[in-house]
Specification:
The structure holds two protein chains of two kinds. Chain A is an alpha/beta fold. Chain A contains 14 helices and nine strands. Chain B is about 40% helix and about 15% strand. In chain B, helix 7 links the parallel strand 9 and strand 10. Classes of the chains: A alpha/beta, B alpha/beta.
């Protein structure tokens, strides 16, 4: 029986059949899919009660049966989150440097066949944006670009990192896959982490969704977090874009991939994010929509099985969901985000963001919510001295 | 064992033998209340939580106003070089010569790196810092750190934040038996009874953070820890009876021979 991913539905989602030969054995979800699809309530309870949950328990906690234990999963997730991260939620803000893109991602508002005009922040604009964000109190900034283009390549990104590093305690990057030495250059410029989503671990689906450009290279993308850490970054941010493929395949693969990296790069960390694809410019409808309830279950399963890994939730999600997950699995969140290029330095909002921001609350409102839940918003949890 | 009533560290004396950490609290106000209730005079704070630009996000200034002695810690450092830089900046910003050397490069269990910890402690002691290294409960390393000029050693009871108590008790006893400097158990303590046990064992002080921050009423728990640390210390001073495998009558059987 398949998990009930979408709201209210009980029908099985379409199964993608295709070769997984291109997936290394240490990522391949196959050994655990049968358990995740067929776990009984007893299996799920045993997983939930396990003192040292591992891959089998993770799979069982993703099952339909475990959905019946959601409240108990939430309780354990909350206890573990508070044990490892305290009564705090770390805050960060994204800044899109450029929406030039060479990629043809079916689901993305920045894909290169979208008709919108493209732009990138010039030096003065960048400084204005960084100063505006600094003035808002942020100390951790995530700099984003599209896939690699002549307009926004490594040199442009490196300059942006260096400029941000002069102002912010923590600078991280979400851009295009790079070579190890390119990541090393970003470390030297002041970056401490890189987020790179696999999008989906289903090779066939991946190929269909990424229609052209360097991003079509599934194996290269899969190897990117390794190069991130090999290049000296302290943190590799990982995730899949939920909705693109069978979430069981993607979440189990993600879990295995993350576990592999933390064993190999023991002096670095991984963090996990849970973006859900939503209808974009181009009208993409996700084939495997993930309901609020199942997204919560996925996050709780990760927290229970990876208690010390930072779990991140962005403003893609609506206020009600974010409020409910804060401190209950999730320990790091963005706020006051804009998904357009720039937009913080001047108030006018342009309509061509990468995705729709569902939580558009300001910092004060959001922090008041956290405080109301007994959670301390933390803006600065790093220091330049550690670069 | 330190038989003085006051804790002596780096040429200074402190009436309280409870040191409190400042992470994980639900608000600065809750943290300050807990510290007041604990009676702690020594408080650790992570350099990465110093925020001079957003007072509402800053931990250092409100602690300084409280009048406690700050022990900046180097949490976040992956190696000795980073820890030394952090210590220097911490001293500059806080004005305190105390430093808690924390080098735990593996983010998943936060176990201290003995090699880097030793190196950073050695350099910082030479630089005039009052060095308190967070360390694995290793008796040999403890002596090496003492020889390197540390003011105290801080062996872990168990992994940070786990609340698994004094799982290293036998090693801590060996450290105490040989140590010429105060031994302060740091990390893992969950309940006041465990803090009391550490003091009864002969520790000079204990450092508690998560157990207070995660309590239902942090200030009340801080107060309970203060009482437990005092009780454990007083018990140790009073001389705790030794264990014996057989019953020993309070009216000995051989009285008739005297």
């Amino acid at each position: 029986m398949n998990a009930d991913y979408a709201t209210g539905g009980t029908s099985a989602p379409p199964v993608i059949r295709g070769p997984r030969e291109s997936i290394p054995a240490w990522i391949d979800p196959s050994p655990w899919l049968a358990l995740a699809r067929g776990a009984t309530l007893t299996d799920a309870r045993r997983a939930l009660d396990s003192a040292q949950p591992g891959e089998a328990e993770f799979a069982a906690l993703l099952s339909s049966a475990a959905g019946g234990l959601l409240e108990e999963m939430a309780l354990r997730a909350r206890d573990l989150t508070r044990r490892h991260f305290g009564n705090t939620v770390s805050l960060y803000v994204p800044l899109y440097l450029s929406d030039f893109c060479s990629g043809g991602c079916v689901y993305c508002g920045f894909a290169s066949d979208r008709p919108q005009s493209r732009r990138k922040l010039g030096k003065e604009e960048l400084i204005r944006e960084l100063d505006a964000l600094k003035g808002m109190g942020f100390e951790e900034i995530l700099l984003l670009t599209g896939e690699r283009t002549p307009q926004a390549g490594l040199a442009y990104l490196r300059d942006g990192v260096a400029e941000a590093a002069r102002r912010f305690a923590a600078v991280t990057v979400e851009a295009f896959p790079m070579l190890t030495e390119e990541y090393r250059a970003l470390v030297d410029a002041g970056a401490i982490g890189v987020t790179i989503y696999q999008e989906t671990y289903e090779p066939v689906q991946y190929e269909q969704l990424h229609r052209w450009g360097p991003k079509r290279d599934f194996a290269n993308r899969l190897d990117t977090p390794t190069r991130v850490l090999e290049g000296g970054m302290r943190m590799a941010g990982m995730g899949t874009l939920l909705g693109l493929s069978d979430p069981l395949v993607d979440t189990i693969s993600l879990y295995r991939h993350a576990m592999h990296l933390r064993r190999r790069y023991w002096q670095s960390g991984v963090s996990l994010s849970f973006p859900r694809v939503c209808p974009q410019e181009g009208g993409y409808v996700p084939p495997f929509p993930v309901s609020d309830r199942y997204l919560a279950q996925i996050i709780f399963a990760f927290r229970i099985c990876m208690p010390d890994v930072p779990l991140v939730l962005s403003t893609r999600e609506a206020p009600g969901f974010r409020d409910g997950m804060a401190g209950v699995g999730i320990n790091k969140m963005s706020i006051a985000s804009r998904t357009t290029v720039g937009g913080y330095g001047q108030p006018a909002e342009s309509p061509d963001g990468q995705f729709h921001v569902n939580d558009d609350r300001d910092i004060e409102t959001f922090c008041a919510m956290l405080k109301g839940k007994g959670l301390e918003p933390v803006f600065k949890n790093w220091d330049k001295v550690y670069r | 064992m330190n038989g003085d009533l006051k804790l002596k560290l780096g040429g200074q004396e402190f009436a309280s033998r409870l040191i409190v950490g400042t992470g994980k609290f639900s608000s600065v106000e809750v943290m300050l209340e807990a510290i007041k209730a604990s009676g702690a005079e020594l408080v650790t704070v992570a350099l990465r939580r110093f925020n001079r630009e957003r007072p509402s996000d800053d931990l250092m200034a409100p602690l300084a106003r409280l009048g406690v002695t700050l022990i900046p810690n180097t949490s976040g450092a992956r190696n000795a070089e980073e820890a030394i830089r952090a210590a220097m900046l911490g001293r500059e910003l806080s004005g305190s010569s105390f430093v808690k050397v924390e080098i735990h490069p593996n983010p998943h269990h936060l176990m201290p790196d003995p090699i880097e910890t030793y190196e950073a402690s050695r350099v910082l002691a030479k630089e005039g810092f009052i060095v308190l290294p967070y360390m694995p409960a290793d008796p040999v390393l403890a002596k090496r750190l003492e020889d390197a000029g540390c003011a105290a050693v801080m062996p872990l009871g168990s992994a940070i934040g786990t609340g698994h108590g004094l799982s290293t008790a036998e090693m801590v006893k060996l450290i105490i038996a040989d140590s010429g400097i105060p031994v302060i158990v740091d990390a893992g303590i969950r309940s006041p009874s465990e803090a009391a046990a550490a003091m009864e064992m002969g520790c000079s002080a204990v450092l508690v953070n998560s157990a207070i921050a995660a309590a239902g009423i942090p200030a009340a728990m801080a107060s309970a820890f203060a009482a437990a640390v005092n009780a454990g210390y007083s018990a140790r001073q009073a001389g705790i009876m030794s264990r014996c495998d057989h019953a020993v009558a309070t009216s000995p059987l051989t009285n008739f021979l005297s």
